[in-house]
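tokens incoming
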């Protein structure tokens, strides 16, 4: 999902992994715990959305289609559950969506996917993907668009314009709208769309209820709702709620995983912690009577693999995404939840740009 010195702007993947060279493709080794899989050298992997269906897990994430080319596409990677409960990812991935060559989404980021019923003409699509996009390389004036498909593998069809627009001429050359998170509330076409938003002197997380049942007649609620920061804590004085992913459990408890920034003010640096919190779902409509309860704050210092003498842990962790079902829900019956997150190391004095392709995805399980 998403960072720079501007709020939420996606990291240009930093850090260099130790690489080995031999016949055939080589794969990355990381300096921190629990990598979900090892991406081939020359490719990055970041900002995932994770769907679990039975003994199969699907991860849709940011990557580059061509080796050593710093252009973001979205890819799908599949895992199967093993007898020991571990997830084994297939070596091959499928690129499912690419940036446009000359439209509003020339640069794309932060995919979020749910299942439902989304009709366009005579075709009913089973999956909806929301993503951030912008025209220019600079991380400003972002907007949120959607695409739809009959299967996760695609083909994915892009909607012709953003569903959450940002007018830089009116609101300034700031971050805009991005980092969407989708949650279905009728398992058909009605969807809650969470997204980050920033304009001059304002940065927050918002939610808007949408009806995507008829893609030729999309209905968005009038106005939007801010997500309260009550109960949340940051490393600095001001709590900045941005770049979050949301999920709902069987008891009506809303879960949030978000980036925690090291600086105060409205322009934080790159995230060094992830925070998981929960609240009654009524918090979306009544932020006076309800507040968040922090489950844990997961820091870079906690990512060291103490069984590996060379492990230093990740320098930056960001863009958490819950492992959810097809509609954005999680189960807490066994007292445990899981999320994936993007990892990076600090850049070194490199003469080339190999660090841009070093980012990878790790996972975290925690008790609730």
């Amino acid at each position: 999902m998403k960072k720079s010195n501007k709020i939420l702007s996606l990291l240009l993947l930093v850090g260099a992994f130790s690489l080995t060279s031999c016949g055939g493709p080589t794969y990355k080794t990381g300096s921190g715990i629990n990598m979900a899989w090892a991406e081939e050298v020359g490719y990055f992997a970041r900002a995932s959305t994770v769907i679990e269906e039975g003994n199969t897990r699907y991860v849709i994430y940011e990557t580059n289609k061509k080796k050593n080319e710093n252009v973001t596409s979205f890819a799908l990677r599949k895992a199967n559950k093993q007898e020991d409960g571990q997830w084994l990812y297939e070596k091959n991935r499928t690129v499912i969506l690419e940036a446009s060559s000359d439209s509003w989404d020339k640069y794309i980021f932060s995919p979020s996917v749910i299942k439902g019923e989304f009709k366009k003409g005579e075709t009913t699509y089973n999956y909806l993907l929301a993503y951030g996009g912008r025209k220019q390389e600079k991380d400003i004036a972002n907007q949120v668009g959607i695409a739809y498909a009959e299967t996760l593998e695609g083909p994915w069809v892009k909607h012709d314009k953003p569903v959450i627009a940002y007018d830089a001429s009116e609101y300034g050359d700031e971050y805009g709208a991005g980092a969407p998170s989708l949650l279905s509330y009728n398992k058909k076409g009605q969807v809650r769309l969470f997204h980050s938003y920033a304009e001059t002197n304002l940065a927050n997380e918002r939610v808007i209820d949408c009806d995507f049942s008829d893609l030729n007649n999309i209905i968005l609620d009038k106005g939007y709702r801010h997500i309260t920061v009550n109960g949340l804590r940051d490393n600095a004085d001001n709590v900045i709620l941005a770049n979050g992913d949301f999920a709902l459990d069987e008891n009506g408890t809303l879960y949030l995983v978000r980036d925690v920034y090291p600086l105060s003010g409205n322009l934080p640096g790159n995230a060094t912690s992830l925070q998981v919190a929960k609240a009654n779902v009524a918090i979306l409509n009544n932020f006076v009577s309800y507040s968040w309860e922090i489950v844990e704050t997961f820091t870079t210092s906690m990512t060291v693999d103490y069984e590996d003498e060379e492990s230093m842990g990740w320098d930056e962790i960001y863009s958490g995404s819950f492992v959810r079902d097809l509609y954005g829900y999680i189960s807490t019956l066994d007292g445990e939840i899981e999320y994936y997150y993007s990892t990076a190391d600090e850049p070194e004095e490199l003469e080339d740009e190999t660090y841009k392709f070093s980012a990878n995805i790790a996972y975290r399980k925690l008790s609730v």
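note: The longest strand covers residues 107-120.
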